[in-house]
Design a protein that fits this description.
Mean pLDDT: 95
Distance between the termini: 13 Å
Largest sheet: 5 strands, parallel
Low-confidence stretches: none
Radius of gyration: 17 Å
Number of strands: 5
CATH class: Alpha Beta
CATH architecture: 3-Layer(aba) Sandwich
Strand content: 5-15%
CATH topology: Rossmann fold
Order of helices and strands: EHEHHHEHHHEHHEH
CATH superfamily: P-loop containing nucleotide triphosphate hydrolases
Shape: globular
Structural class: alpha/beta
Bound molecules: adenosine-5'-diphosphate, thymidine-5'-diphosphate
Number of helices: 10
Helix content: 40-55%
Strand order of the largest sheet: 2-3-1-4-5
């Protein structure tokens, strides 16, 4: 049984990641685990640059964005104050809302996937998720949820782009099936139904003592 572990939530925009991160945190804490939740893009200076480009406050080429995500992710891991590696070392189970599979899926419609994977290899070499959880919704549902919850739409939040990104996610999961542990869950259900499915998978993989 693993003492603490690292989980990355993935999915297209509005798939319900942050909702499920909160629900999973609550369930793990109720089991007595220390849990640290985090997200990408982060609050680092690189993360702020990314958000400025996404919202249209600043300009940036897709290649620049890809490189900013690489740097933001390394800082996310290595930051001495609250980096993921430090939090794991302190015994926290860490849950992140997005990690490098997001870069593979979101940056590869614009540039070579091999480059994106290589550019993220330092992060992957430092830490692979014990489990990626991909919440699947259609691009149409994503746009509907985004329109409901927000007044402005960000750079990658168009139907065409999200359609490409979802296709990329599935291609990548197939391509990396020997390296990446991914649980795919259907996101077109109630919060509780999704959360319960995730919880069963977590219990089974990380929390139950194996039968003798
Ligand atoms: P993400 O972090 O993936 O962008 P959120 O958790 O912020 O997704 O959810 C996006 C929107 O969809 C929010 O308005 C949220 O309340 C809603 N939402 C999340 N999960 C569900 C669900 N299972 N069914 C319906 N709406 C949901
Ligand atoms: P996020 O704040 O998670 O958006 P949402 O909650 O709507 O899913 O992520 C912001 C945007 O950043 C989102 O459109 C996906 C994009 N993104 C990338 O393009 N590459 C990456 O590596 C990451 C982590 C995010």
């Amino acid at each position: 049984m693993k003492k603490n572990f690292f989980i990355a939530f993935e999915g297209i925009d509005g798939s319900g990641k942050s909702t499920q991160v909160k629900l999973l945190k609550g369930k793990l804490e109720a089991e007595g685990l220390k849990v640290y939740t985090t997200c990408e893009p982060t609050d680092s200076p690189m993360g702020k640059m990314i958000r400025d480009i996404f919202s249209g406050r600043a300009e940036g080429d897709h290649r620049t964005i890809a490189a900013l995500f690489v740097a933001d992710r390394l800082d996310h891991l290595l930051n001495k104050k609250n980096g993921i590696l430090k939090m794991l070392e302190e015994g926290y189970t860490v849950i992140t809302d997005r990690y490098y599979l997001s870069s593979y899926a979101y940056q590869s419609p614009y540039m070579d996937l091999d480059w994106v994977i290589k550019a993220n290899s330092l992060s992957a070499g430092l830490l692979r998720p014990d489990l990626n959880i991909y919440i699947d919704i259609t691009p149409e549902m994503s746009i509907e949820r985004l329109n409901r919850g927000r007044t402005s739409i960000e750079l990658y939040e168009t139907l065409d782009n999200l359609t490409n990104v979802r296709t990329k996610y599935f291609e990548i999961m197939e391509l990396l099936k020997d390296e990446e542990e991914v649980l795919v869950v259907d996101g077109d259900r109630t919060h509780e139904a999704i959360s319960n499915e995730i919880w069963h998978a977590i219990l089974h993989r990380f929390l139950q003592t194996p039968a003798m």
